[in-house]
Amino acid sequence: MEYRDLLVTVNRRCQGLHKVKDLKEFKHVFIDIVERHHRAFTQGKVLHRDISEGNAMFYRDEEGAAVGLLGDFDNTSKVQIPFMALDILTSAGPPIPHFYRHDLESFFPTLAGWNAKYSYEFESAMGKTSLFWLHQAVAKSILEIFQPPFDPMKDEWVRPLRALKGFRLAEDAEDSKRQADFDGKTLGGVVMFESFMEALGQKPRDWVL
Is residue 209 part of a domain? Predict the structure, then answer.
């Protein structure tokens, strides 16, 4: 008789973000996800590389409060095109190293997907989210299909993120790399966790695990 070990992993039951109660809870969960993703990078030295709607979720704690988290850290590979960072998507040369800022950029199309109503227009717009930073017409088409309860997000989060200069600099990253002192990991110190949170009007919380 051959003996074998059986390992069982038990996780909390999680739900997709379409199950949140309201806009306030959605924003709380989204910030949880961004902060926990940053903690995984700074403390665990892990990049997710495949941030998308399907990987963002939440569970309810013992008091019923929603807690956001990012799943599939163990099954990440190549990010899906609608969620891909602009310079990775448009690069015609050798593969670009995947940096933390690329994960940050993938949070935008994920955010847009949660807030927009599902329709043909949504499918069309989601195919263009990587161009959101550069083209006003694309930005307008995405904002127009936001669900009414999420309209406040346009001015509170989405437009400030679009105004974050670093994401637009990604298009010129290849030219900038020719400068010996250019920091490609943060696009010259512009795209970082701190600047992303500032665009959302949020102060990082120390308690996040």
Answer: no
Query: Which residues is 56 bridged to in the sheet?
Result: 70
Please say whether the beta carbons of 191 and 167 come within 8 A. Answer: yes
Give tens-digit pLDDT for 78-113. Answer: 555 556 666 766 666 777 788 898 888 888 777 876
pLDDT score for 120 = 46
Amino acid at 125: A
Structure tokens given for 139 = 């930005």
The model's pTM is 0.78
Q: What is the chain's Cα-based Rg?
A: 18
Do 208 and 202 form a contact (C-beta atoms < 8 A)?
no
Residue 141's CATH number? 1.10.510
Cα–Cα distance between 30 and 110 in angstroms, integer?
10
In a domain, 6, yes or no: no
For residue 50, the enclosing domain spans 17-81+97-200
CB–CB of 101/166 below 8 Å? Answer: yes
Q: Which of 44, 69, 45, 43 is nearest to 57 (CA)?
A: 69
Q: For the chain, how many structural domains are there in total?
A: 1
**Model pLDDT for residues 62-87, shown as the tens digit of each residue:** 999 999 988 877 655 555 555 666 67
Tally of CB atoms within 10 A around 98? 17
